[in-house]
Amino acid sequence: MNSYITIAENINRVRESIAEAAIASGRAPEDIRLVAAAKTHSADMVKQAIAAGVDAVGENRVQEMLQKHELGAYTDAPLHFIGHLQSNKVRQIVGVCDLIESVDSVALIELIGRKAVSLGLVQDVLIEVNIGGEMQKAGVLPEHLSEILEFASRTEGIKVLGLMAIPPFCEENERNCNYFDAIFQLFVDIGRKKYDNVSMQLLSMGMSDSFCDAIRAGSNMVRIGSAIFGNR
Predict the structure, then answer these.
(1) What number of helices (H) and strands (E) belong to the chain?
(2) CB 80 within 8 A of CB 59
(3) 114 CB neighbour count, 10 Å cutoff
(4) What's this model's pTM, rounded to 2 decimal places?
(5) Which domain holds residue 177?
(6) What is the mean pLDDT of the chain?
(7) Is 157 exposed, middle or buried (0-12, 13-18, 19+ CB in 10 A)?
(8) pLDDT in tens, 23-37
(9) What domain count does the chain have?
(10) Separation of alpha carbons 3 and 135, rounded Å
(11) Longest CA span, the chain
(12) Rounded to the nearest 5 degrees, what angle is found at the Cα of 114, between the Cα atoms of 159 and 184?
């Protein structure tokens, strides 16, 4: 599944589904950002996806991202980091990524802000929420979200643009939608508050198996891997 036409056709199909879900939720299709989740896929495939019109590219692994970056894989599209971010990798991605979606601790905010200030820039981030309270997953628990946002509001060098989440996988569609609804409600509630450096513009939730439900629940950014590139 590495031909241009296959990737382009897949993206067209995803765009059609995005449009249907967006319209069903009372929004325009262009209100939804499509992020190609490119983990394990080659620089050439990433370039094909960009040429076919994705809005951004998301990477999960720092080393893989840097290697593709050196090959010019992300030219003409914003680059997002969407995987678990270790503290010792912060210095390698600040200023390289347009958006870090997976910030989930005060320690990471402090490190990102410090590095960004040293580079003379402001790093855009999303706060990752562990909406299901799963021990094996990253993300800040909902009850601790205000604490991390208050810290972010006092930290130079960063700008919080919204939330990201990977809800628990549920075979029952209704349970998936309940998680999406809960995240959207957090997004709305935070938007009503006035934190410095915090602006609820982006809600990143929904992947290949769930993005239509996520959009109908209020997501405006989806991270799609296998539906674009095929199974790894």
Answers:
(1) 9, 8
(2) yes
(3) 16
(4) 0.94
(5) 4-229
(6) 93
(7) buried
(8) 999 999 999 999 999
(9) 1
(10) 39
(11) 47
(12) 30
Q: How confident is the model at residue 172 (pLDDT cuts 50, 70, 90)?
A: low
What are the distances in angstroms from CA 151 to CA 100, 104, 122? 17, 12, 16
Q: Dihedral through CA 197, CA 199, CA 201, CA 207, nearest 10?
A: 70
Q: Are 36 and 225 in contact (CB under 8 A)?
A: yes
CATH code at position 141 = 3.20.20.10
Show the tokens assigned to 53: 């019109």
Chain position carrying tokens 């809960």: 182
In the chain, at which residue ranges do the beta strands (DSSP E only) sit? Answer: 33-37, 56-59, 79-81, 99-103, 123-129, 158-165, 198-204, 221-224
Tokens 């010019």, residue located: 72
- In this structure, what token pair is assigned to residue 91? 């210095």
* Distance between CA atoms of residues 1 and 153, nearest Å: 44
- The alpha-carbon radius of gyration of the chain (Å, integer) is 17
Name the residue among 70, 75, 73, 33 with its Cα closest to residue 55.
33
